[in-house]
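PROTOCOL LOG
Step 1. Enter all chains and additional molecules of the complex.
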Amino acid sequence: MRRRDLLIRVAGLAGMMPIGLSASTTNKPALGYLSVRADIHRRYYVSGIDHQGKIIFDLPLHGRGHSIAVHPNQHEAVVIARRPGRYLQPIDIQNGRLLNPIECWEDRHLYGHGIYSPDGSRFYTTENDFDGNRGVIVVRDVNDNYRRIDEFESHGIGPHELCLLSDQETLVVANGGIQTHPDFGRTPLNLAHMSPSLVYLNRHSGELIEKRKLQKSLHKNSIRHLAVGIDDTVCFAMQYQGPRTDRPPLIGVHRHGEKICLTSAPRDILAAMQNYCGSVCADSSGQAFAVSSPRGGLITFWAAKNAKYLGTIEIVDGCGIAPCASPGEFFLSSGTGGLYRYRISDSRLERLQPGNHASHLWDNHISHLNQRSAQAC
Amino acid sequence: MKKLSLLMLCLLPTTHVVADETRFNLMTVDNFIIPGYRSMAESTNALHQAAEIFCRQPDESGLSMLHSRFHTAMDSWQRIQAIQIGPIEKRMRTFRIQFWPDKRRSVNRHLTSLLDKAEPALLEQQRFTNGSVAVQGFSALERLLFPLGTVAGQFSASPEGDFRCRLVESITENLSIISSSILDEWQTGKSSHRQLIATAAQGNARYNDSSEVSARLLNNLFTQLERIIEQKIRRPLGKDEKHSRGKRAESWRSGRSLRNITLNLEGIEQLNQHAFLSRLSHPEITTSIHHTMAESKAILSKIEIPLNGAVADPTTRKQLVLLAESIELLKHQVIGKLAAELDIPIGFNSLDGD
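Step 2. Run joint prediction.
Step 3. Record the structure below.
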């Protein structure tokens, strides 16, 4: 067992698995998840992780990544640079090696999220047209080395995460509302005039289908992350830019054409979330959502059907969340090196020991390789 | 409701750790941060006065006084540059004070446009502050006071010379106002930032607890070390001589790129001492950090030509590479050992998420 793991690890790292072994189904490493991370010296990597939290490969990145999009039907994934980064780093996840990186236009930068089309031929990213002060969705041709082929408006400032609805045509985009410009690093430039929105677009034409905003008093509540659950229920998680003593709702659910429903968490739980959510995902059935609040060190769970609060677990600096194959189960990561599995039904939190590497500072997002879930989360 | 929660907090046992944390945070504020901004407020005020004197009669002696006060003011800024918490976070003050790095040549672009327009109304304090951030601070001032050709003639009695001088006055006044506002907001009144740090343990509008203050300060320290290594040294250095870019060095026009780094290291040393090393029971970590700091300074003092020239010279390039490595070691000691020893949560996602 150990020897096999070692073999796989070494082969994966060097990217030179002997041909006879490479595609052999019996020995195939059970890669389950992908995440970006830093080490304690703040060097950045993308790591492949198995279902038990073992690291299968670890590849160095040029700058900090944010999330990873998984190709729906090939052994490929793309690391998207954290804002205001400009690289897309495709990886061969079967052999654990980096492919040719892609840079976005000089006058654009990425926001850290991207998504493949269901057939894997297109790749969509949220980007900043910073001189034009507008958010855009850039379309790339995956089969032509991610060549940029189109761009359309995100109909808001600061688009962040984007997901696809079940019709496979409609993109839902979180426009965070915060204006930034690379000249000023990550400094927000428009806090007084923020106007975050949830936007539905046709992925072919860019046509605006629906745009939803929060009530005016919540205009500093930046809508950042999204997940799509059952019946195309969109769960969005926010980061509030107003005073720390305010207690705005931080999570909302929405169905296309309906009104936004903001969730109500128990008072102490809402306070503990410290006005900040880092990530959201749906479980494999789409019935439940998990939302991480790394500042408060907790993860909350919500029912897709009625936006009801289901419970909380505490994980210090816990941020990355992804669905497991079984419904109601989540794979979780923390910035302090922890990997966990959690089951809602019996509140069982399992710390995955092999993944307990203190030097592995798991970054914002973790992706599941199961394509449907990966698309939804 | 508020009263109730305050009462509840009073009933909670205050551990020594919390009290200590607040004490060390306040020591840092009182012994490093506030004195640092006080010296900046004084030196930028003196700079503004020198600008007024010079503009009344632009001559060589006035200019040399202006140059010398530019350096003193820049010295005080570079010493405190690491601090990125508190009033400096407001209204883009960091960028107003010094717009750098300027990857898209914004300073030149906006400065040229302002000089071309030469409308005195644009320099009125309110309008100037609301205008382009790129022309409001040291970077623009340096371009005006240390141009590549001769200086004195540029301020001669002519409409252009006069406007140029008024601009110098506006920038220096702006620097002086920002610096004294920062100082004031740190120390004056019930809602001062010092007060926010003093009451952080109970949670307030700015901080959830006192360890958040320590974590932010450690993050500031770390970020400043990274800035020196990546932006101030490696970016102008390039991968080899052919790719070196001297003009990417900070403050190359006024020939003080290396002096900035020396002052940055002094600031880091003081910040580190007050905030962290003074509460450390482990002498080995302190010794190793002191040792690396001394080594970095020693390497720095041996580089005898300005940074923008040094990046293109094979001998000095080697010294710069060594300098970056030495500061990198310092960074690893701070982040790897100090943070762990003091149990300061450098929350990766909680402090620096997106």
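Step 4. Note key features.
Chain A touches chain B through 36 residues (CB under 8 Å).
Chain A has one domain: 2-376.
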